[in-house]
Amino acid sequence: MTGETDLRTLLDGMRPELNPGRYVFTMAEGGVPSGVSPVVTVAEQEGLTLVVPQADADAAGMAYDYVAGWITLRVHSALDAVGLTAVVARALADAGLSCNVVAGFHHDHLFVPYEQAPRAVEILRRLSGTAG
Predict the structure, then answer these.
(1) Backbone angles phi, psi at 101, to 5 degrees
(2) Which residues have a Cβ under 8 Å from the Cβ of 37 and sit 6 or more positions away?
(3) Are the C-beta atoms of 19 and 72 separated by less than 8 Å?
(4) Is 2 part of any domain?
(5) Quick check: 76 and 4 in contact, CB under 8 A?
(6) Does residue 83 form part of some domain?
(7) How would you list the strands of the sheet with 67-73, edge to edge?
(8) Model confidence pLDDT, tens digit, residues 14-51
(9) Which label site among 44, 103, 106, 115 has the fewest CB atoms less than 10 Å from its CB?
(10) pTM over 0.90
(11) Count of alpha carbons within 13 Å of 47, Cβ hemisphere only?
């Protein structure tokens, strides 16, 4: 199943969806701790970065300093699509919001400051022309 590459089609169809919960970026040494269910893992030279529900990190005693809301862009974007990440990040940056983007095989996932996540979704809906 091939993803979409046309930028206008991607923007029009992105349908941003705020996933429930609070998520944190943390590090794990020696693998994922028992009871922790990461939604993202990234192997870096310095160690394993995990994005996990805040409750999992708290229960496992994992350190973090950034609490995020998780937005999924429901459009199936191709991994070689050009411009979607840039346009989305620019719109959020213009509103003063940080954005950490993770590309999955089917969708792009945005992690934004938790308290500002509903605002970020509204900005993205306006960008796609689907506000209201």
Answers:
(1) -105, 135
(2) 52, 53, 56
(3) yes
(4) no
(5) yes
(6) yes
(7) 40-44, 47-53, 16-28, 67-73, 108-113, 100-103
(8) 999 999 999 999 999 888 999 999 999 999 999 999 99
(9) 44
(10) yes
(11) 10
